[in-house]
Design brief:
Layout: H1 3-15, H2 18-25, H3 29-43, E1 48-50, E2 55-57, H4 59-86, E3 91-97, H5 105-116, E4 120-126, H6 129-137, E5 143-146, E6 155-170, E7 181-182, E8 191-193, H7 202-212, E9 219-222, H8 226-234, E10 240-243, E11 254-260, E12 266-274, H9 280-296
Parallel strand pairs: 3-4, 3-5, 7-11, 8-9
Antiparallel strand pairs: 1-2, 5-12, 6-10, 6-11, 6-12
Length: 299
């Protein structure tokens, strides 16, 4: 039995007339009659009985009609879904996230993609940098977000956007009165740095910035992530530098001011993916994020 047999059968059943069904199918009547006879011979049952006006379904024909409609409907849905998958409009994408981007840029990038790709399921996984690299290599995730990535064989680290840096400070700090803060003003202020773990990291970036400004930072503590850093600021441990995304954390006792510096006031947000991943869904995701990123933090 072939799908065309079922299509011909359903058409005849709905038209209740071989001639009208042939017109609807754009074939002549004799070949259509032969196709129906072949189907009856294969099944070993009579599907139609003749009437004065044409044909009507037998009991066996009525049962087959219901199943044939379901089969043809499933076939059409399968074709449609496979076509959508080939266009990156259907499927699953696993994304690893970590750091301050989860409070601002990343949700906005994902929200825009979801709006235009409602049939793509997005699963988020919290992973540090080394875990992200391992998961990408073993194909457990499709894409990861992080900052200051070192070159890794087989992986692409693409800069999506650069965020302005802010100083997170206690609300009773004298710097709160400023509309912006320079790095030199933090020379003697205790700094909370993050994240500990795989290097290079934002900690290295802060040390480099301080060296350029000819001072060694007064490090109060190093912590694992931006949440802990800002929490320590709220308790009065010192100040910390954060990307703009982190300013969405409205903790009591914490104020944010832009970092003013002609060349050191921004930090990259990268997406990392496998170099050999040619999937349509990754292509769609990257295209969407590149377009959205241009509007988030214009250069």
């Amino acid at each position: 039995m072939e799908l065309r047999h079922l299509r011909y059968f359903v058409c005849v059943a709905e038209e209740k007339n071989i001639g009208r069904a042939a017109l609807r199918l754009h074939i002549s009547q004799p070949p259509l009659t032969r196709q129906i006879q072949q189907l009856e011979d294969q099944l070993g049952v009579q599907l139609f009985r003749r009437t004065n006006r044409g044909v009507e379904l037998t009991d066996a024909g009525r049962v087959l009609y219901d199943d044939a409609c379901n089969i043809l409907g499933m076939t059409e849905r399968a074709i449609e879904r496979s076509s959508k998958a080939a266009q990156g409009l259907l499927g699953r994408v696993d994304v690893a996230i970590f750091g301050s981007g989860i409070f601002g840029a990343i949700p906005r990038l994902m929200r825009v993609f979801r709006a235009s790709h409602p049939e793509v399921s997005i699963f988020l996984h919290n992973m540090v940098k080394d875990e992200q690299i391992d998961a990408l290599r073993h194909r457990r995730i499709t894409l990861a977000f992080n900052r200051l990535m070192r070159p890794v064989d087989g992986l692409v680290s693409e800069t999506l956007l650069t965020e302005p840096l802010y100083v997170a400070m206690p609300t009773d700090s004298p710097l709160v009165a400023r509309t912006a803060v320079t790095l030199q003003e933090l020379e003697k202020v205790p700094l909370v740095l993050f994240p500990t773990g795989a290097r290079p990291s934002f900690i290295d970036r802060v040390h480099e910035m301080c060296r350029v400004c000819n001072f060694t930072p007064l490090v109060a503590q190093e912590v694992g992530d931006v949440v802990h850093a800002v929490a320590l600021v709220a308790t009065g441990f010192g100040v910390t530098l954060v990307p703009h995304s982190a300013t969405a954390m409205a903790l009591p006792g914490v104020a944010y001011r832009p970092l003013h510096h002609p060349t050191l006031s921004r930090v990259d947000l990268c997406c990392i993916y496998r170099e050999d991943d040619g999937s349509a869904i990754l292509k769609s995701l990257l295209e969407s994020m590149r377009k959205t990123a241009k509007d988030l933090y214009p250069a």
